């Protein structure tokens, strides 16, 4: 993951950031689809084909057959009752037998109906509870997936902004002036000594600055600085560099490395005067 993030924020014309999001999004999507398949779809499919539902269906079919048998027996009783004018012992016996069988079928049908109804209600309740739980799992998976995508986009946005700021800062502080505008330290010192009149004419533009960050000269014409040094700044360029003199040497340095002050502390002046 760390390696992919590094690739993500590195400048590349092929836009690796889009590739990174695509890969990570695909992995998150596969995770979500796996949850939907193994934790939602398959349990619901097993519930539909499970034994409780099959048992409830079997009881319902038995109840339907018994109801049909009850209707047939009821019709038989009615038919025999219509022949009640025949008061022979055999007819009476057959009528009582038919009525008894009708009563037994009715009793069994009522009991089986209650059992089938209870079984179907139990299965329905179980299905509703299971379906609700699986839908909750599905919603949680969707939320997790989208939260992950949002987190990736937020992190990507922050890293891109930070990278842009760092690049802008680096360009402002690291691009020195052109060589033709940078006087060498020796030439600058000699020039200052030989042309004192010019310095007096331009002295109004000079100011004192205190070094707040050390700077090591890397090229001719640059001036090394140490923290707490004091520099006479004679020129400030628009590209982020300044030219000045410190400890008898002149050169260019980053403008952001010094801070303008009104005057040099008395203790600093005393220390410089006592230096042989």
TrEMBL record:
Residues 168-194 have a biased composition (Polar residues). SUPFAM superfamilies: BAR/IMD domain-like, SH3-domain. Keywords: SH3 domain. Residues 167-199 are annotated as: Disordered. PROSITE patterns: SH3. Residues 204-263 form the SH3 domain. SMART domains: SH3. PANTHER family: SH3 DOMAIN-CONTAINING, SH3 DOMAIN-CONTAINING PROTEIN 1. This is SH3 domain-containing protein 1. It comes from Sesamum radiatum. The keyword Isomerase does not apply. InterPro entries: AH/BAR_dom_sf, Endophilin_SH3RF, SH3-like_dom_sf, SH3_domain.
């Amino acid at each position: 993951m760390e390696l992919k993030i590094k690739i993500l924020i590195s400048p590349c014309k092929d836009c690796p950031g889009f590739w990174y999001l695509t890969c990570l999004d695909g992995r998150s999507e596969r995770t979500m689809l796996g949850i939907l398949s193994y934790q939602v779809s398959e349990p619901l499919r097993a519930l539909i084909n499970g034994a409780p539902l099959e048992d409830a269906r079997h009881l319902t079919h038995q109840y339907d057959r018994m109801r049909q048998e009850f209707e047939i027996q009821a019709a038989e009783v009615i038919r025999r009752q219509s022949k009640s004018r025949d008061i022979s012992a055999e007819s009476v016996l057959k009528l009582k037998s038919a009525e008894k069988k009708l009563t037994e079928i009715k009793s069994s049908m009522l009991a089986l109906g209650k059992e089938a109804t209870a079984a179907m209600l139990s299965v329905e309740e179980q299905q509703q509870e299971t379906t609700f739980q699986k839908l909750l799992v599905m919603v949680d998976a969707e939320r997790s997936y989208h939260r992950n995508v949002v987190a990736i986009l937020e992190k990507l946005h922050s890293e891109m902004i930070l990278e842009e700021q760092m690049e802008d800062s680096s360009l402002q502080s690291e691009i020195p002036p052109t060589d033709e505008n940078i006087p060498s330290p020796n030439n600058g010192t000699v020039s200052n000594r030989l042309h004192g009149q010019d310095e007096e004419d331009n002295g109004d533009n000079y100011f004192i600055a205190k070094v707040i960050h050390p700077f090591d000269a890397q090229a001719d014409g640059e001036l090394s600085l140490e923290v707490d040094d004091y520099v006479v700044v004679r020129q400030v360029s628009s590209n982020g560099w300044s030219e000045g003199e410190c400890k008898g040497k002149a050169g260019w340095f980053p403008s952001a490395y010094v801070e303008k002050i009104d005057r040099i502390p008395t203790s600093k002046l005393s220390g410089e005067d006592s230096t042989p």
